[in-house]
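user:
I keep going back and forth on a fold encoding question. Separate attempts, laid side by side, tell us more than any discussion would. Would you put together a sequence-and-structure record for a protein of your own picking? Write it directly below this note and I will take it from there.

assistant:
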Amino acid sequence: MLEFMKGNAASRLGKYFFTINKRKIIYLALSQLILMTPATAHAINFYTVATGQAKALALGDVNGDGYIDAFVGFANNTPDQVYINDGSGKLSNSNQNLGAYNTIYVALGDFDGDGDLDAVTANYGQPNRVWINDGTGHFADSGQELGNSSTNSVALADIDGDKDLDMVEGIYGAADQVWINDGSGNFTNSGQELGTTETTTSVQLGDLDNDNDVDLFVGVYNGPDHVWLNDGTGVFTDSDQALGNATTYSAALADLDHDGDLDVYEGNYGQYNTTFVNDGAGNFSYSYQELGKKQTKVVALGDVDGDSDIDAVIANYGQTNDVWSNDGNGTFTSTSEAMDGSNTAALALADINNDGNLDAVVTNYTGTEEQVSNPLSISFLMAAFIALLLTGLRRLAGKNA
């Protein structure tokens, strides 16, 4: 005889939860419940490494001790800083005071082939700078001034196939630029002008058409995003795709749907975030997902819940930062595991505290420097409880078969 009950679990699902005397039916019902419950494998730690005019952030092991450090770029002619990790996740300012520019973007990579991470800072209204690492995490100005435009974003990869890192510069109100590395960390403008007078807010490099070279995705403020395909020598051609028409502030590339190619997660300011799905040949289609409508500044991708697919952590200006969980097929659901945001300017993911899980590191315009571990989420606790209950009922169901 069936007995219908209305309970907390039922109201969460929007359905009636029922039981029957046969324990197998209980087991099946709970199986459906655990599948429908958003489970977080572990809570996300978040670290506020810098505040004030800290607008840019890049993470990497800059001093070769095996721990992830932070290079933070500051605006309004405030010196950039390098924060060193003690191995437990505590990041301390090394007080190097690198330059005094209007830095709004930072990227790390080994420019001179000596096995350590160097840095490039993108400076708004000023030339970009290249900083060379001595291997111990101390940086020296290379003396290079790359361009003299209003750079919003840079991306690093081996564009021309010569085994060193080159750079694409995304520019406000002007054509984007390609800079070629000579292998010793010296960059030369290739002369390519990608686009016209659109405002590029995000440039991302990756092999979009699966031809073993690095292509370019360009996120645009208040206009369609673009895809530029590489011919293998570092020369880019516009694919003539016009993707969306939103106010894109950030875009990120990853295989979101497990089909072996790079898709796009698009973060938009004051409009719905969404994704674009790659067909494997570099052609993108709109997924029709509406993934939150906040003032998104940064999208960071990684497996934050330990289920072997790519999730999204979203930094929002003046609002809480959010975590969106991937179901493995590229469909995202809000986890309700919001991180407090104090006007977040930059966000990146890495294992800061050496526990094997991805952590979120942010810089904020306001607030204080914090290094705090989020408490376990309710969804995690519910999933753990149901899993234990499920194990016991499985055994009972087997005995009463």
Q: What stands out?
A: The two ends are 18 Å apart (CA to CA).
